[in-house]
Amino acid sequence: MFDTHAHIQDTAFDDDREAMLARARDAGVERIMTIGTDLPDSERAAATAARYGLDYAIGIHPHEAKDAPADVAAAFDALVARAERPPRAIGEMGLDYYYDHSPREAQRRVLVAQLRYARRRDLPAVFHQRDAFDDFVATLRDEGAAPMRGVVHCFTGNTEQARLLVDEFGLRLGIGGVLTFKTAGSLREAVRTVGLEHLVLETDCPYLAPVPHRGSRNEPAFVAATAALLATLFETTPADVVARTTETAGSLFGT
């Protein structure tokens, strides 16, 4: 399995990071992408990836856009120059109007800067979108981003949104623990409609643990619960889900 979106550098794992990663390996998780959410966190992601043999992405989450540097590209270049090896992706970037922790104009500016950086560096983009779908799509269209390499992580939208992201932009959908929630019927229908070939697995750990672990700290080993539910939805085996989503993730992020 490939957990394509985790936050392994998060302080939630400071007390048992190595044991947690051992549990992931025992559960069949062979690759993990750890994701940066601002410049210091991205630096920690790079260092954590180097120490534990993980993949990583650097990015500025929309919550942190208010504190982003004026020249995002220069800041990213400096970070990459200090890292032991280059990132696999840029993000997570995007728009979040649910919390509005950063002004919307700042969110859009930082999203565009990161999107342009990803395309210039020929790296896939890792997108975050919450309660901002219309503006998110409008920004991608304004930037001429179709088609592009990228994933909308923690996708929780409906069938129409899923089809648009896949059909117009060629994006992949990151599917995690929310799929297992009792209230996620519309998401399960969207996933069935769009097809397994457009999906990748993720946890977003330490957040959003799947059933039966809901309410506890999430970790990469729990991605198996999402794979099992996908197997039920597509009337196949967990091994088939793992093989196909891992192949899709490898095509997106490199092998």
Task: Describe it.
By secondary structure, the chain is an alpha/beta fold. The chain has a single domain, classed as Alpha-Beta Barrel (TIM Barrel), CATH 3.20.20. The chain has 9 helices and 8 strands. An 8-stranded parallel beta sheet has the order 1-2-3-4-5-6-7-8. α6 (159-169) links the parallel β6 (150-152) and β7. α6 (159-169) packs parallel to α7.
List keywords for this structure.
alpha/beta, 8-stranded parallel beta sheet
Report on the biggest sheet.
8 strands, parallel
CATH topology term: TIM Barrel
> Ranges with pLDDT <50 over ≥5 residues?
none
**Helix-strand category:** alpha/beta
Question: What does the oligomeric state look like here?
Answer: single chain
Overall geometry: globular
- Report the portion of residues in β strands: 5-15%
Number of strands: 8
Instruction: State the separation between the terminal residues, measured CA to CA.
Output: 13 Å
Q: Please list the strands of the largest sheet in the order they lie side by side.
A: 1-2-3-4-5-6-7-8
Domain tally: 1
Name of the CATH first level: Alpha Beta
Number of helices in the DSSP assignment = 9
Rg is: 17 Å
- CATH homologous superfamily - what is it? Metal-dependent hydrolases
**Proportion in helices:** 40-55%
List the secondary-structure elements in sequence, H or E: EHEHEHEHEHEHEHEHH
How does CATH name the architecture?
A: Alpha-Beta Barrel
